[in-house]
Amino acid sequence: MENLTALSYDLRKDVIDMICAGKAGHIGGDMSVMDTLVALYFNQMNVTPDNMDNPNHDRFVMSKGHSVEALYAVLAKKGFFPIQEVIDTFSKFGSKFIGHPNNKLPGIEMNSGSLGHGLPVSVGMALAGKMNGLTYRVYTVMGDGELAEGSVWEGAMAASQYKLDNLCAVVDRNRLQISGNTEDVMHQDDLHERFRSFGWNVIDVKDGNNIDQLNAAFEEAKTVKGKPTVLIANTIKGCGSSVMEDKAAWHHHVPNAEEYDQIMKDLEARKEAALNE
Which alpha helices (H) appear in the chain, and where do they start and end? Predict the structure, then answer.
């Protein structure tokens, strides 16, 4: 199997090139969520360009749709479209590759961007699978700032009510959002206890940027029956370079030439370290 950790750093480079070429993008959240997407698309989910018409393919919803650049990089690597086309046209006038997921593109199940919608829609997808006797699983990734949306908790109640053990949500718990620290903007309390109180199985991923830990958590989630599962993935915003890491200002930022060079060096160094482990 390809070294998925090394791959995650290569795909981060694609994201950096995409954002610099398009002069826009939510770079910090792209970097924190990349490892979750790599684990899902390259180890967990039954999703390929060839099976999207198969009613039993797994579903993925990017609820934190502003981190679409990471999703584009992963889908391109899976063969849904050419990465160079994404880099060359991202966020430009008339481009298919806009700043939020668009289901007119292959591999994207739903438009997202209005926060709080991904989990409720995923509940519907998972319930439909149960009603139709299908075995596909549904995955969604939410930002921790997104959890201030009331529709998230309506979806959480419904998922528990219908015992949707084919549904797995991930919270990208990087603790930063556009306005600053999540605990200052809207205090999260104990997310584990909160989701448990809504009837969910909760798995804590201590290092949400560690693909081995993520894969172990996703495998555990598959064994849970009678209730949905949420992974609380403790990530670092801007993961991959000290230029970006854990800095709220990098929620939406385009690197200048000096920052670009340093970020690319850092990503290459981490890739090499992963290959040499």
Answer: 4-22, 27-39, 68-78, 83-89, 118-131, 150-161, 182-185, 191-197, 211-222, 257-275
